[in-house]
């Protein structure tokens, strides 16, 4: 009987959370008041759930892997949309927009050019890598004629959320012998887009724009909400989606003796074999937990 009462109480609290999560829209008299209520709601849940401390003695086994989150897959759409934030609520932004705004405001400070977090980059460096300025043929004729270049003959191309095609993430799987289970810790995330200098070509190469040290960005990603198609009254935070692994990822690199080479380096020109190799790596990691309990 007591178990039933506890279960009913938990269910009531869950439902009440769904109701009050968007109550600001029902109780506000003006849009400004609705936004203020939303900010107050977010302040009640200001910090993400702590990762917790893991002692070196508790890590019995570990492996670092790199994965691709392909934004063409429907399950990964919450990380991509909305690509246009002009005509939408201020609290709905794409993951790329949240990351760039956090870097610009200084709330996300640990930003690097490489996946090993050794080359820090500034917001200005990131903007330079996402922009291309070119001169049209008529503009070149003006310059050759010794005339001043007109502004209409200057083409500027900036990468936006629309151009992001993938996210690369780096994380560690480890077996916690104190808890007796296999766990995952996300370490870094990088938006991936076509090279802006060749974006108009037929098949431009994809490049990692920057790497964010994930633990330092959790508070920002916790406050930013992704759309929940099942229940708009209870949106998910980006931090929850990533930490809980509510996405489909394809392993493209693992920590190995060959200098952490990519799967494509030894599975050349065969996409099917690369997918099968990714599944093999994932299955070998899952089997670690099963093997730990075999005597």
Folded structure, characterized:
It contains eleven helices and eleven strands. The protein has 295 residues and is of the alpha+beta class. The chain has two domains: 46 residues, no CATH class; 212 residues, no CATH class. The strands form three sheets. Strands 1, 2, 5, 6, 7, 8 and 11 form a seven-stranded antiparallel sheet that branches. Strands 3-4 form a two-stranded antiparallel sheet. The chain has a two-stranded antiparallel sheet with strand order 9-10. Strand 5 and strand 6 form a beta hairpin. The longest helix is centred in the C-terminal third of the chain and has 22 residues. It starts with a helix and ends with a helix.
The Rg value, from CA coordinates, equals 23 Å
Shape: globular
SSE string: HHHEHHEHEHEEEEEHEEHEHH
Report helical residue fraction.
Answer: 25-40%
Sheet with most strands: 7 strands, antiparallel
Strand content: 15-25%
Discrete helix count: 11
Summing up helix and strand content along with how strands pair, one would put the structural category as alpha+beta
Number of strands: 11
In short:
Helix content is 36%, strand content 22%. With 295 residues, it is α+β, with helices and mostly antiparallel strands.
Write the layout of secondary structure elements.
Layout: H1 2-21, H2 23-27, H3 31-44, E1 59-70, H4 77-80, H5 95-105, E2 111-112, H6 123-129, E3 131-135, H7 137-144, E4 154-158, E5 166-176, E6 181-194, E7 206-208, E8 211-213, H8 218-223, E9 225-226, E10 236-237, H9 238-243, E11 249-254, H10 263-266, H11 271-292
Antiparallel strand pairs: 1-5, 1-11, 2-8, 3-4, 5-6, 6-7, 6-8, 9-10
């Amino acid at each position: 009987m007591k178990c039933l009462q506890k279960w009913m109480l938990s269910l009531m609290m869950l439902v009440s959370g769904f109701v009050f999560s968007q109550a600001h829209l029902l109780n506000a008299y003006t849009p400004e008041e609705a936004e203020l209520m939303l900010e107050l709601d977010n302040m009640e849940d200001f910090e993400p759930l702590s990762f917790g401390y893991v002692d070196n003695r508790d890590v019995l086994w570990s492996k670092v892997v790199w994965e691709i989150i392909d934004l063409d897959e429907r399950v990964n759409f919450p990380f991509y949309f909305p690509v246009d934030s002009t005509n939408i609520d201020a609290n709905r932004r794409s993951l790329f927009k949240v990351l760039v705004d956090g870097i610009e405001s200084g709330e996300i400070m640990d930003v690097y050019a490489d996946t090993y977090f050794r080359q820090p980059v500034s917001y200005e460096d990131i903007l330079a890598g996402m922009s291309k300025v070119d001169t049209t043929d008529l503009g070149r004729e003006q310059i050759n004629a010794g005339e001043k270049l007109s502004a209409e003959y200057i083409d500027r191309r900036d990468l936006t959320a629309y151009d992001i095609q993938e996210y690369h993430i780096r994380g560690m799987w480890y077996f916690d012998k104190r808890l007796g289970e296999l766990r995952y810790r996300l370490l870094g995330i990088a938006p991936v887009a076509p090279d802006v200098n060749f974006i108009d070509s037929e098949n431009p190469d994809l490049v990692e724009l920057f790497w964010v040290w994930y633990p330092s960005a959790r508070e920002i990603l916790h406050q930013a909400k992704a759309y929940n198609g099942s229940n708009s009254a209870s949106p998910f935070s980006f931090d929850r989606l990533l930490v809980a692994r509510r996405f489909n990822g394809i392993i493209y690199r693992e920590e190995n003796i060959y200098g952490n080479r990519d799967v494509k380096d030894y599975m050349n020109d065969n996409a099917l074999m690369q997918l099968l190799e990714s599944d093999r790596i994932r299955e070998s990691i899952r089997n670690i937990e099963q093997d730990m309990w075999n005597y």
